[in-house]
From TrEMBL:
Claim: Transcription is one of the keywords in the record: yes
InterPro entries: Anti_sigma_zinc_sf
Protein source organism: Nocardia camponoti
Keyword Transcription: yes
Swiss-Prot/TrEMBL keywords: Transcription, Transcription regulation
Protein name from the UniProt record: Anti-sigma factor
Domain of life where this protein originates: Bacteria
Protein backbone atom coordinates (compact mmCIF):
# COMPACT_ATOMS: atom_id res chain seq x y z
CA UNK A 1 0.00 0.00 0.00
CA UNK A 2 1.35 3.44 -0.88
CA UNK A 3 2.11 6.15 1.66
CA UNK A 4 -0.78 8.17 0.22
CA UNK A 5 -3.23 5.35 0.94
CA UNK A 6 -1.85 4.92 4.45
CA UNK A 7 -2.37 8.65 5.02
CA UNK A 8 -5.91 8.31 3.64
CA UNK A 9 -6.62 5.39 5.98
CA UNK A 10 -5.43 7.49 8.91
CA UNK A 11 -7.66 10.37 7.83
CA UNK A 12 -10.62 7.99 7.58
CA UNK A 13 -9.92 6.65 11.07
CA UNK A 14 -9.71 10.20 12.41
CA UNK A 15 -12.92 11.19 10.65
CA UNK A 16 -11.14 14.06 8.93
CA UNK A 17 -11.68 13.41 5.24
CA UNK A 18 -12.82 16.07 2.79
CA UNK A 19 -14.75 15.73 -0.48
CA UNK A 20 -11.64 14.77 -2.43
CA UNK A 21 -10.84 12.09 0.15
CA UNK A 22 -14.43 10.80 0.00
CA UNK A 23 -13.98 10.34 -3.72
CA UNK A 24 -10.69 8.47 -3.22
CA UNK A 25 -12.24 6.20 -0.58
CA UNK A 26 -15.20 5.46 -2.85
CA UNK A 27 -12.84 4.52 -5.68
CA UNK A 28 -10.88 2.29 -3.32
CA UNK A 29 -14.00 0.56 -1.98
CA UNK A 30 -15.17 -0.09 -5.53
CA UNK A 31 -11.75 -1.28 -6.67
CA UNK A 32 -11.51 -4.84 -8.00
CA UNK A 33 -8.26 -5.21 -6.01
CA UNK A 34 -9.43 -7.25 -3.02
CA UNK A 35 -6.01 -7.25 -1.39
CA UNK A 36 -5.75 -3.47 -1.54
CA UNK A 37 -9.24 -3.04 -0.05
CA UNK A 38 -8.36 -5.47 2.74
CA UNK A 39 -5.05 -3.75 3.51
CA UNK A 40 -6.75 -0.37 3.56
CA UNK A 41 -9.47 -1.55 5.97
CA UNK A 42 -6.84 -3.22 8.15
CA UNK A 43 -4.94 0.08 8.39
CA UNK A 44 -8.11 1.96 9.28
CA UNK A 45 -8.88 -0.63 11.98
CA UNK A 46 -5.32 -0.48 13.36
CA UNK A 47 -5.50 3.29 13.54
CA UNK A 48 -8.86 3.15 15.34
CA UNK A 49 -7.38 0.72 17.85
CA UNK A 50 -4.34 2.93 18.43
CA UNK A 51 -6.51 5.99 18.92
CA UNK A 52 -8.71 4.13 21.38
CA UNK A 53 -5.62 3.43 23.49
CA UNK A 54 -4.61 7.10 23.43
CA UNK A 55 -7.98 8.65 24.12
CA UNK A 56 -9.77 7.27 27.15
CA UNK A 57 -13.51 7.62 27.13
CA UNK A 58 -14.49 10.12 29.77
CA UNK A 59 -18.03 11.33 30.13
CA UNK A 60 -18.28 15.11 29.99
CA UNK A 61 -19.73 16.84 33.04
CA UNK A 62 -23.52 17.31 32.86
CA UNK A 63 -23.12 21.10 32.99
CA UNK A 64 -21.23 20.97 29.69
CA UNK A 65 -24.24 19.48 27.90
CA UNK A 66 -26.50 22.14 29.37
CA UNK A 67 -24.07 24.89 28.34
CA UNK A 68 -23.84 23.53 24.78
CA UNK A 69 -27.61 23.27 24.42
CA UNK A 70 -28.01 26.82 25.75
CA UNK A 71 -25.41 28.11 23.29
CA UNK A 72 -27.15 26.34 20.41
CA UNK A 73 -30.53 27.71 21.46
CA UNK A 74 -29.07 31.23 21.66
CA UNK A 75 -28.01 31.09 18.00
Amino acid sequence: MTDALVDLAHAVALGSIDDEDHHAVAELINSPDTLLRTEFQREVDRTHAALAQLTPEVAPPPRLRAALLAAIAAE
